[in-house]
Amino acid sequence: MSLRILDMQLLLLRCAAAGKHSANFCTPIPDEFHGEGWLGERILAVTEQMNSTELLSGQRNLHKQEQALLGMLHSLPWSGQGTLTSSSSSQKSSNFELCFDMEAIRGEPSPRFSQLAKERGVATVFHGTKMENVWSILNCGLWTLSETKFCQHGSILGKGVYFSNNYRTATMFALNQARNCTNSESFQKAWWHFSLVNLLNLSSFNVLEEYTITCFPVFEAQIILPPADGMSTSDEDCTRREGNYFVVPNSWDIRITKLHLTFTFTKKRSMSPFLFAAILALLLIGWMKMYAQAHVLDE
User: Fold this and answer.
1) Where does the chain cross the membrane (predicted)?
2) Which residues in 74-183 belong to E strands, given as ranges?
3) Can you give the pTM of this predicted structure?
4) For residues 53 and 77, what is the distance between their CA atoms, to the nearest angstrom?
5) Who contacts 282 (Cβ-Cβ below 8 Å, separation ≥6)?
6) What span, in angstroms and rounded, lies between the C-alpha atoms of 23 and 104?
7) What pLDDT is stored for residue 103 in this prediction?
8) Of 140, 178, 241, 251, which sits 20 to 30 A from 203 (CA to CA)?
């Protein structure tokens, strides 16, 4: 396993652990992590000092939970054969893009997928999500959450996994979700880690203090197309199309091929001297008024 893939694994697992549904979305996880209390908190605590360079070089002794977690990460089917490439290597750029290509590890499609692909054809589509969901999707696939407690945006087009044939449309969904979750205290705790610094080739943790870093993940996949008009089928869970959107009720009709991670850097705004002086003046005026009122009451 490469250092960068291990860093990606640690970051994605920590993001899943920081989510409010960590008990459901941190699958798989070693048995050593199960017990009383919040699972996400235990994962964040154990991975806090896990640095990929030290882990793969054997620079320090690992305790039981760290050993179990590292063994599990090595055993994941997508850990050794996928390729991770980047399009930027400096925090001076406003964007840093990573692409994790999984086509080499997917193997041959299922007989069902192959047969339907011959009959109906396939389409390359995109699904935008949020960071806390990526770990589960990589390990368990894309499954419909419609009509479950995990469905956050409704199912206006019916039950199924939603895709767009336009990458930019999918990134808009992912970006909106990223803005909602990255400001939370638990997510910031997960974000502040060696894995993020290593993945983005940052010079130090100081960059995290100077910039707000947001990530929006988009999965690229192949799906079975809807039946052509007039085509008879006994499959009740066929893919549906509404304009540029596809709804896939049956997860077996989805083959994930790539994960795109786009990180954006926004310089944190510091308070200007003028604004600081204005706030200080307002506080001083308020204090003087309170003092004057108290003095009048005393008289």
Assistant:
1) 274-292
2) 83-86, 95-101, 122-128, 161-164
3) 0.82
4) 21
5) none
6) 30
7) 82
8) 178
